[in-house]
Design goal:
Strand order of the largest sheet: 4-3-5-6-7-8-9-10
CATH architecture of the largest domain: 2-Layer Sandwich
Distance between the termini: 29 Å
Low-confidence stretches: none
Bound molecules: 6-O-phosphono-alpha-D-fructofuranose
Mean pLDDT: 91
Largest sheet: 8 strands, mixed
CATH topology of the largest domain: Fructose-1,6-Bisphosphatase, Chain A, domain 1
Structural class: alpha+beta
CATH superfamily of the largest domain: Fructose-1,6-Bisphosphatase, subunit A, domain 1
Shape: globular
Strand content: 15-25%
Oligomer: single chain
CATH class of the largest domain: Alpha Beta
Number of strands: 16
Number of helices: 7
């Protein structure tokens, strides 16, 4: 199906979300309130990413985060920008970040804190010094009756009410789903707004491209190694950037399959379930694709920890199935 690109009328992120909310009687517009904070925060982060090397934002801060990864200056800056922009949204009960060991319990559900927003503030930040595309990934959950306690947030990905990412690449692209398909916006710096460029994105099939870090081939399971041998013998091409948002965005637009499987040194996988795999899986499924961890649907994994990791295989249904057949 030919990709539908809409540039004939100027639709901003806010007007697109408001139009969507009007389809739901009783919608209170509080969703727009959260997404406008995400829009503001990611515009500010994009500005910092674009000024890397001009402003002193490159390099690490000499400390490790909860993940045991060296924190980059921009990781901390991006994290603080998001916490500031989202923190004063009075319908957010919990904020949870890759960069912080424990979530921020802002307000109880009974005090209006109805949503949890989980995010990776700057995924792929180790690539910033070489100007490779990096991104912010976010997931929105409605809090259960457990109020603002952490358990209220540990819900399977099928319960997400919204998911999205912002790719700070050659253009600044926001991809968003609120459960009714996937829409894509590009930041028009001339007017300072994310403008709608595609509604109802559908992931193409029949693109024989895989995206995986082949340096770990000998550490993958036998079935992944068997798949790679088969792909090499069947005219597949390989594309791997090492920045999940950039790799997944390419898969969303062009098709193919992205894999970050468990290895013998990372038996639970590397990517985090709650704020990387789940939001990406919701976007890919909403675009007509498939997202699994081994044989299990990622969105049905029952989380038992905020920072738990998972294997990831996601992309076009035909390409994910080609992996699973090995
Ligand atoms: P590797 C970036 O550090 C990240 O978390 C994802 O953005 C990316 O997909 C993955 O790790 C790359 O990991 O082991 O291939 O460098």
């Amino acid at each position: 199906m030919k990709q539908q690109w809409t540039q004939d009328n100027l639709t901003s992120l806010q007007s697109s979300i408001l139009a969507e909310e009007q389809k739901h009687p009783g919608a209170t517009g509080e969703f727009t309130w959260i997404l406008s904070a995400i829009s503001l925060a990611t515009k500010a982060i994009g500005n910092k990413v674009r000024c890397a090397r001009i402003q002193d934002v490159i390099g690490d801060i000499g400390e490790q985060n909860i993940q045991g990864e060296t924190q980059q200056k921009l990781d901390v800056i991006a994290n603080e920008i998001i916490l500031r922009c989202l923190g004063d949204r009075d319908n957010i009960g919990i904020l949870a970040s890759e960069e912080n060991e424990t979530p921020f319990l802002l307000r109880k559900r009974t005090d209006g804190g109805k949503y949890a927003v989980l995010f990776d503030p700057l995924d792929g930040s180790l690539n910033i010094d070489s100007s490779v595309g990096v991104g912010t990934i976010f997931s929105v959950l409605r809090l259960s009756d457990l109020g603002s306690r952490e358990e209220a947030m540990l819900r399977p990905g099928v319960e997400q009410v919204a998911a999205g990412y912002v790719l700070y690449g050659s253009s600044t692209v926001l991809v968003l789903t609120t459960g009714n398909g996937v829409d894509m916006f590009v930041l028009d710096h001339a007017i300072g707004s994310f403008v709608l460029v595609s509604k109802g994105l559908k992931i193409p099939s029949e693109n024989k491209t895989y995206s995986i870090n082949e340096a770990y081939t000998n550490k993958f399971s036998d079935n992944i190694q068997s798949y790679l041998r088969w792909a090499h013998e069947n005219e597949y091409s390989s594309r791997y950037i090492g920045s999940m948002v950039a790799d997944v965005h390419r898969i969303l637009l062009k098709g193919g399959v992205f894999l970050y499987p468990p290895t013998d040194t990372k038996p639970e996988g590397k990517l985090r379930l709650m704020y990387e795999a789940n939001p990406m899986a919701m976007i890919i499924e909403q675009a007509g694709g498939k997202a699994v961890a081994g044989g299990e649907r990622i969105l049905e994994i029952k989380p038992d920890g905020l920072h738990q990791r998972t294997g990831v295989i996601l992309g076009s249904i035909d390409q994910v199935d080609a992996v699973l057949q090995h």
